[in-house]
Amino acid sequence: MEFQFQFDWQAAINAIPFLAKGIPYTLMISFGGLAIGFLLGILFGLLSINKNWFLRWPAITYIEIFRGTPILVQVLFIFYGLPDLIGAPIDPLTAGIAAIALNSGAYISEVVRGGVQSIDKGQNEAGLSLGLSRTQTFWSIIWPQAFRRMIPPLGNQAIVSIKDTSLFSVIGVGELVRQGQVYIASTFTAFEVYFVVALMYLAITLSLSLVLRLVERRGLASI
């Protein structure tokens, strides 16, 4: 028995409008979560290098937990497990944003820690010798230099988080993969639909990569 497969371009084209409805959810979850994750990353990244043990270890614990467990398990815990604790349901969109925020925050914490520690200690001494306080020295001298070094890994984390949203179809979030699953259920064109879904993710991540490269070049040019 000979098996023949022919790619149905018309089916792929017909699927685009329906699949495109998932793009806003994908972007909302990824960038909304990343915005919160960036704030968490700054907070816990700086706390993780604090000399005070009571501030440092809670930050390290958070980082290790969310870096050491799969994001799929995290979002399932938030969506299915946490409601049992708080006694109220959590909608899929909120669960997705929370999972991206907590997961990316842990990775960004390490980016912040590495960026700050990569700056020569002489920079801090120079600021203090100019009469600046330690806080002023950090935010005026150390942080701007460290942030420029953080841009590439932060960009990489953004791309990873966008791709991670594809896992959230398991809780019913209407992002790209979920839209594809719904469309396939009625058309039985899995190969064509997932091909288009992959191209959409690729278009989003490549566009973001281009923007990040431009930002990185401008950052390097200003040094």
Notes on the structure:
The chain is mainly alpha-helical. It has one domain: MetI-like (MetI-like fold, Orthogonal Bundle). The protein contains 9 helices and no strands. Helix 7 runs antiparallel to helix 9. The protein is elongated. The chain starts with 8 loop residues before the first helix and ends with a helix.
Q: For the terminal residues, how far apart are their CA atoms?
A: 66 Å
The level of helicity is over 70%
For CATH, the homologous superfamily is named as MetI-like
Q: pLDDT under 50 segments (min length 5)?
A: none
Number of strands: 0
Structure characteristics:
223 residues; mainly alpha; MetI-like fold
Short recap of the structure:
Belongs to the binding-protein-dependent transport system permease family. HisMQ subfamily. The chain is mainly alpha-helical. The protein is about 80% helix and about 0% strand.
